[in-house]
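Cast an eye over this sequence plus tokens and explain the fold to me:
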Amino acid sequence: WEDKAKGWLCISHPVQGYEVKAPEDMKSFFSGCILNSEGDTGPFISYLDVSHLNVSKTKNFCSCFFGFGRHVANSEILGLETWDVSKGTDFSMFFFEAFSENEEVDLDLSKWHFKKCGVLNFDSFFYSFAGHAKKVTLNLNWEMNCAGCFARMFCCFAINAKEVNILGIKNWCVSQVIWFSKMFKNFAPNSNCTLDLSVWKVQEKCGHTEFAQETFFKIKEPNWR
């Protein structure tokens, strides 16, 4: 059901106990805005409930929430914490410029589990995330153990926030990741957030150009070999 006047969208099934199955390709699925019946740009979504959306077969999440919450104050997504993303391979630009108008963002994605084989793409996952927020909290306590690309993952993250908390990231296993370039470039420059990533074990000759450029020594980098 939806209420376009209020910018609400809820994905659910009319029969209790049933769920809505998502397609294998969810590229740009919730990006930016919704369209009205004439195909014109409609009201921007401010509240989205995806609790009943089964994404267990989805492989492509590229730009899924690209620009979500743009031009909308205090937008909210309910139900992301229960998503089964274990079949996903492409998560690039997942939250690119998302929640740009929120004063506060708090996401608990700690129950997400990813594939342990193959190559996963997290390029620009949180690029320019929560651009005007004052406080950002993310629980990313992921059992990360995959090959892939982390380039620009947190680039320009929460650039105006005074308080930034990211949980679980130092425990990621990134020994198979091949690309870290600009991963934390200009990360939360106005916050007191510090990250000790010296415990990360990285492979030889992985790309890490400008890994934490312009973070003013707030990020302790891995031991690049």
In short: Residues 35-40 have pLDDT under 50 and may be disordered. The CA atoms of residues 66 and 157 lie 14 Å apart.
